[in-house]
Design goal:
BirA Bifunctional Protein, domain 2; 11 helices; elongated; binds 3,4-dihydroxyphenylalanine
């Protein structure tokens, strides 16, 4: 009997000697100690077949073997786990004295900087921001702005139609109608957003951004428009900049004007930027057409208003000397990182 126990003990020791990790040791432990399938519990079950005289001595030996095996496996397991932990720690060691990998900070897109600067300026004059939808219906984008179907002014903007009635808005002016329909004067809103036109060259892109402004109240005149534009031009392009209004045409304003600023590069003497004229065109504007006010249920004999609309990319390009509008949409960080504030 003792030899039998000794043999098992030796087999356990021999097998354990080649076990390299705690998982394999666990399997070995099961082979000998598992209550259902292990060899040592099997010996205990076999005791039934022994004679009554043999049983106590055998039982004692098996119990001793079991005690020894439990101790043995517990001890080996602790050793292996300690070694495994040490190995893991060594692999995960970090050198805290190593220099860090610097990450460059992101920055706002130059067009966002311009939009924010514009909102800042006009918010200071009491404007609030209204954002209309990018997919508009024909009524808000054209008809209500005094540009019915077949109106020749529709050709001024090549439109992307989604369906006969729905289109990608060609101008943030559409937002004017949405505001006037729902708000009683006094109205003073700024409406920034993306607009879309089938147009593509160095200074035009099929998608670009506009900033619309609208003021409606009793007694609003063209002088109010120019006074406010002076503030805008000086804050964006510099204290010495002057504005000039030229007669123009937009269906939704009467009279309509084109607004120029004196060239901030040459001070008005004439240079490449202003093409020798001393002036740079920056936006369209005018007094809100009576018909547009009527379309929105505002009495044009009581209220008057002015509106203006500018291309944000155009202002960005002028302000930062960017020659091609595509540079604003290519997301090339070598270009964009130059404008971080
Ligand atoms: N919507 C015009 C455009 O896209 C710009 C414009 C001109 C807006 C005159 C206005 C305005 O509000 O009064 O070219």
């Amino acid at each position: 009997m003792e030899d039998q126990m000794k043999a098992i003990r030796e087999r356990i020791e021999a097998a354990a000697a080649s076990v390299r990790d705690s998982k394999a040791l666990y399997q070995l432990r099961k082979q000998f100690l598992d209550n259902k399938t292990g060899e040592i519990p099997a010996l205990m079950k076999g005791m039934r077949d022994l004679s009554a005289e043999e049983r106590p001595a055998f039982g004692k030996l098996v119990n001793a073997l079991k005690e020894w095996a439990l101790d043995f496996f517990t001890g080996r397991d602790a050793e292996l786990k300690a070694a495994e932990l040490a190995e893991k720690n060594a692999a995960e060691q970090i050198d805290v004295t190593m220099p860090g990998r610097p990450r460059s900070a992101g920055a706002l897109h130059p067009n966002t900087l311009t939009a924010n600067a514009l909102i800042d300026i006009f918010a200071g004059m009491g404007f609030t921001v209204f954002e209309g939808p990018e997919i508009e219906n024909d009524y808000y984008n054209f008809t209500a702005l005094n540009t019915p179907k077949d109106h020749p002014a529709r050709d001024m903007q090549d439109t992307f139609y989604v369906s006969p009635e729905l289109l990608l808005r060609t101008q943030t002016s559409a937002g004017q109608i949405r505001v006037m329909e729902n708000t009683k004067p006094p109205i003073k809103i700024l409406s920034p957003g993306k607009v879309f036109r089938s147009d593509d060259d160095a200074t035009h892109s099929p998608m670009f951004s506009q900033m619309e402004g609208l003021v409606v109240d009793k007694g609003i005149t063209l002088c109010d428009l120019q006074g406010m534009l002076d503030v805008f031009a000086q804050r964006i392009f510099g204290e010495d900049v002057k504005t000039r209004l030229r007669p123009s045409y937009f269906p939704f304003t009467e009279p309509s004007v084109e607004v120029d600023v004196s060239c901030f590069a040459c001070g008005g003497k004439g240079c490449r930027l202003c093409k020798g004229t001393g002036w740079i065109e920056v936006l369209g504007a005018g007094m809100v057409n009576r018909k547009v006010l009527e379309n929105c249920g505002i009495d044009p004999d009581v209220y008057t208003g002015f509106a203006f609309g500018m291309g944000i990319e155009r202002i960005t390009m002028l302000k930062y000397g960017i020659p091609n509008i595509k540079m604003l949409f290519e997301s090339d960080v070598r270009v964009l990182s130059q404008f971080a504030e």
